[in-house]
């Protein structure tokens, strides 16, 4: 697919560009409204096309934990019959706790960790079925309260039954930016992994105590613009970090429900690197 179309879709999903304006621009790029409507399903997440992750070795349930102003909804997944486990907080993209991120949470549990997929939209009623509505609601969250809700999620995991008190986080897109924020704001965090997420302010980087790992798509110019300054700040503060840029792949390359952006090879390599970090830091 033409990279200009993918770039337009990325702009649409990460800005206030209306669906009407997006479709108008998509029609211009494709040549007609009819072709735009044909291309659209290839751009949007398709949860049916990606098989739901299942494993007899884990349990998964809906839970709540205390947030700043009321309960936070979440999916808790963990290996059956195992104790003394490290825990991972999973942070969704800018549409809420959708089936893809629930699958990611289960996959982390299958790797031998307690995993908590938090619904950041809990204060606004939870993640809606309409992804566009979810994107709108994300923009209405109070930034400081949202951060505190995630910090409370980390504390919940530190005290959870069967855990060993060691906690990491992983986030994707909007969640990648939040993973970086948690690294800045939680000095007890063992590791933070950000997939194509916005970088923290360089002035805040010296606060990081966790090991951090970042995964970026080589074609993701919007997010990658902040990489050099972030890496320079990490080096200057002697922070344990790794940055991986996967050539020729797009933003959201890990999302197997996004057919035009998913890159299987990059996703598998990034996933293995992520799990290896968790195994080394959470044991």
TrEMBL record:
Pfam families: DLH, YqhI
Superkingdom of the source species: Bacteria
UniProt domain Dienelactone hydrolase: residue ranges: 72-280
Keyword entries, A-Z: Hydrolase
Residues covered by the YqhI domain: 2-27
Gene3D superfamilies (UniProt xref): alpha/beta hydrolase
GO molecular function list: hydrolase activity
InterPro entries tied to this protein: AB_hydrolase_fold, Dienelactn_hydro, Dienelactone_hydrolase-like, YqhI_dom
SUPFAM superfamilies: alpha/beta-Hydrolases (SSF53474)
Protein name (database record): Dienelactone hydrolase family protein
């Amino acid at each position: 697919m033409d990279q200009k179309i993918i770039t337009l879709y990325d702009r649409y999903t990460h800005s206030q560009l209306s669906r009407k304006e997006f479709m108008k621009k998509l029609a211009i790029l494709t040549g007609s409204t009819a072709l735009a409507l044909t291309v659209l399903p290839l751009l949007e997440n398709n949860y049916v096309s990606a098989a739901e992750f299942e494993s007899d070795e884990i349990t998964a349930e809906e839970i709540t934990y205390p947030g700043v102003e009321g309960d936070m909804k979440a999916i808790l997944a963990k290996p059956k019959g195992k104790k003394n486990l490290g825990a991972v907080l999973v942070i969704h993209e800018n549409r809420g706790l959708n089936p893809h991120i629930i699958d990611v949470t289960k996959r982390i549990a299958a790797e031998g960790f307690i995993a908590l997929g938090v619904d950041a939209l809990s204060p606004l009623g939870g993640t809606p079925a309409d992804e566009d509505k979810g994107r709108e609601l994300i923009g209405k969250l109070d930034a400081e309260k949202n951060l505190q809700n995630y910090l409370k999620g980390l504390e919940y995991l530190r005290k959870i039954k069967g855990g060993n008190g060691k906690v990491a986080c992983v986030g994707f897109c909007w969640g990648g930016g939040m993973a970086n924020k948690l690294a800045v704001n939680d000095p007890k965090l063992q590791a933070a992994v950000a997939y194509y997420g916005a970088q923290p302010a360089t002035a805040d980087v010296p606060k990081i105590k966790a090991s951090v790992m970042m995964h970026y798509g080589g074609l993701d110019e919007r997010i990658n613009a902040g990489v050099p300054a972030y890496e320079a700040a990490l080096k200057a503060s002697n922070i344990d970090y790794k940055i991986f840029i996967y050539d020729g792949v797009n933003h959201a390359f890990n999302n197997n429900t996004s057919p035009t952006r998913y890159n299987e090879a990059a996703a598998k390599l990034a996933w293995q690197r992520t799990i290896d970090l968790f195994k080394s830091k959470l044991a």
